[in-house]
Amino acid sequence: MAAQQSQSIQTLLEAEKEAAKVVQQARQYRVQKLKDARSQATKEIEEYKRTKEAQFKASEASHAGSTQAAQAATDQETQVRLKEISDAYYRNKDEVVRKLLDRVVLVKPELHRNLKKEEH
Known about the structure:
Helix content is 87%, strand content 0%. It is mainly α. The chain has 1 helix and no strands. The longest helix is centred in the middle third of the chain and has 104 residues, at 2-105. Belongs to the V-ATPase G subunit family.
C-alpha cells in the first residue's frame, strides 16, 4: 500500500510539473501574442501616418498653386492702386498747395460773429 501511495504521489508530482510546464508555455504564448499585436499595431499606425502625410502633401501642393495665383493677383491690384494714388497726388498737389496758401496768406480780418455789436 505504501508503494501504491508513493506511486500515486509520484504521479501527482509529475502531473503538477506537466501542468506548470503547460501554464508556463501559455504565459509565453500570451506574451508573444502581445508583442506581435504591438508590433502589428505599430506597423498599421506607421502606414496610416504615411498615408495621411501623403494626402496632406497632395492637398498642400494643389492649394499652393491657388495661393500663389491669389498672391499674384493681390500684388497686381496693389500696384494698380498705388499708381492711381500716385497719379492723383501729382495731379492735385499744385491745387492743394495753392488752396492752403490762399487760406494762410489771404486773411480777411473780421470780428467773430459773437463779438459783433448789435445795432439798436
